[in-house]
Amino acid sequence: MSDFGNVSEAGSISFERLLPGSIERAWSYLTDSELRATWLAPGPMELRTGGRIELHFKHADLTPYDEVTPDDYAAIADGTTLHCTVTACEPPRLLAFTWSDGSEVTMELTPQGDMTRLVLVHRRLDDRALFIDVAAGWHTHLDLLVAHAEGASPPRFWDTHEALRIHYGASEAAE
């Protein structure tokens, strides 16, 4: 399993991660606002098809490091909220929702021994710049998720994100 995202179809990127613990524990990291706040964003989530999701992003709160927000993200340095809609919900296995730009995210969990396999796919990323940003973003956020689930120190958010933007920007996947 590679940490880098894979392009399975045009405009889509998928990631796989193994998380320690049960599928119920992994589901909690995806759906419980307090746990989700450690790696992605807090906010209410109605766990039913058609349910509303609010993701309150404030990247400075994700790690204990004092980091400078890159100029490209200065407008959201103090936070931003995304409004999403649940398109599928089958606890504790499947969660899918629209992203605020009209794209769609699917997260599937599968037990694998004493671990849980997470497959995250983000579809309908038709713009190259958006694809690069989303790929680097999910990769960074998933690195945080794994670190928190393992009880390890999280990586620096913006340093990691910026290095990954360069990687995904240089890859043929972004074409």
Structural overview:
- The protein has 175 residues and is an alpha+beta fold.
- 29% of the residues lie in helices and 27% in strands.
- The protein contains four helices and six strands.
- The chain has a six-stranded antiparallel sheet, with helices on one face.
- Strand 3 and strand 4 (94-98) form a beta hairpin.
- Helix 3 crosses helix 4.
- The longest helix has 23 residues, at 128-150.
- The radius of gyration is 15 Å and the shape is globular.
- The mean pLDDT is 94.
List keywords for this structure.
175 residues; alpha+beta; Alpha-D-Glucose-1,6-Bisphosphate, Chain A, domain 4; 6-stranded antiparallel β-sheet; 29% helix
**DSSP helix fraction:** 25-40%
**How would you name the CATH homologous superfamily?**
START domain
Domain count, please report it.
Answer: 1
Structural class: alpha+beta
Mean pLDDT, all residues: 94
Strand content: 25-35%
Task: Compute the CA-based radius of gyration.
Answer: 15 Å
Coarse shape: globular
Q: Give the biggest sheet.
A: 6 strands, antiparallel
Low-confidence stretches: none
- Report the CATH C-level class: Alpha Beta
Q: What's the arrangement of strands in the largest beta sheet?
A: 1-6-5-4-3-2
